[in-house]
Amino acid sequence: MPPWQLALTPRFLPLSLSAAAAALCLVLLGASPGAAEWWVTGLGLFGGLTALGVRDLTQTRHAVLRNYPISAHLRFLLESIRPEMRQYFFEDEKKGTPFSRDQRAVVYQRAKTQLDKRPFGTQNDVYDRGYEWLHHSVAARPVPPADFRVMIGGQGCSQPYSASLLNISAMSFGSLSANAIRALNEGARRGRFAHDTGEGGLSPHHLAPGGDIIWEIGSGYFGARDAEGRFSAERFAATAANPQVKMVELKLSQGAKPGHGGVLPAAKVSAEISATRGVPMGLDCISPAFHSVFATPVGLLETIAEMRRLSGGKPAGFKLCIGHRWEFLAICKAMLETGITPDFIVVDGKEGGTGAAPLEFMDHLGTPLREGLDFVHNALVGTGLRDRIRIGASGKIVTGFDMVRALALGADWCNAARGFMFALGCIQSQSCHTDRCPTGVATQDPVRARALVIADKAPRVHNFHAQTMHALAELLAAAGLQSPTQVRREHLFRRISDHEVASFAALYPLLPPGALLEGTRDARFADAWALARPDSFAPA
After folding, report:
1. I need a labelling partner for 423 at 20 to 30 A (CA). Which of 41, 240, 303, 458 fits?
2. Over pLDDT 90: what percentage of the chain?
């Protein structure tokens, strides 16, 4: 877009009008000296606004100001009086918004290393049904070092990976801007945690900063496909050999839209995205709803084993949102039959986010994280496979308490997307699908993307990770624990009615080891186990 057209767009119009008005006042000052007082006043007013707009364009700390010079100051004004004006300007957070403003505030404070404490006690109603808490200990311990890590890599894995307990969840280049990807990876490099590429391929922007990579392969096989869109072992092996790639992950489904494919319109397939994904320009970039490289549980495991071999022995696993329970149990039966096990499984909750999905898919399809995580952990325990497979958890995880809860339900580590997006400056405008992100995070518009300054946002990504891990360490110490592996379901409680509470141990009972092999009668598993078959995802 030519500069003059850009200057007339609504977001730059206040600056353009201020500059034009200041110039007009300057001309009239010379032409009508008798009214000099008026023109000097106007020149001072509009000249000051113009100077403010120019400063907004050139500063690097606030992406919204870079994209909306002058006008964005109204947002900061309202933000500064938010506690007093919330009831007038903001909808009920429990009913309307996808993420509470208080949680976002904590992310921003931690990302900017600001004080994240607050006065007057909890803002939750502790007598509301669903309220959850962690029990503390009268024998609290000193806060341990917060660099908690987990080793990922089972049999057949010659390059195991020591992963942080908090990593960046899958977000693709194409959905996110190049600057956002670079800032995330630079933050991951500084904090020694991993960055999942999402299914959009491994781009130069992921590699340039040098941070650890989890390379996700989806049904479109982007970055690992031939000219016909089929999985290419040669291309996969060449990319997976990169030393930055620490693990390879096959995406079966995504929590926000399980069972739904995706389309990147041809108009958005730039030369850079074409090269990264291995797709032609001028055509829609399609992610099918299903995989073409396998069709059975055994085939899935053979694909995982081949990915591990082609990557040179790096940890290989898959990500899914739990749907039909017999399908996951069929995968477990296939593991028992073939002896092939993934090094890890990432459980994605249906509350996970996405750039765009149908309303019905987002609201009513897929299993929430807690139930899915509990099911996967129990299924692996019940089949005697749990000690061979690590479990990751993703889906609205942003605080240390969220991590404790996931660990109690069986996770070995957690992935977060939204929290890291907030650290980048996301204001949750919910315009990701329009390519008009006001902060340069979720856009391919180069003018909008320039608002996100990598040198400013990468440290915030690092800070958010470090502060959240420290919060986890503080919670563990308060509960009398020294390690995340000591978290038990008995440590967490939930209010289930006005006068009743229950522990997670009661709400999410554990299967005994090997129970499925011995023929359990547990109603959560018995019927689904009978329907599961290793040679097909269809029920028996």
Report:
1. 240
2. 62
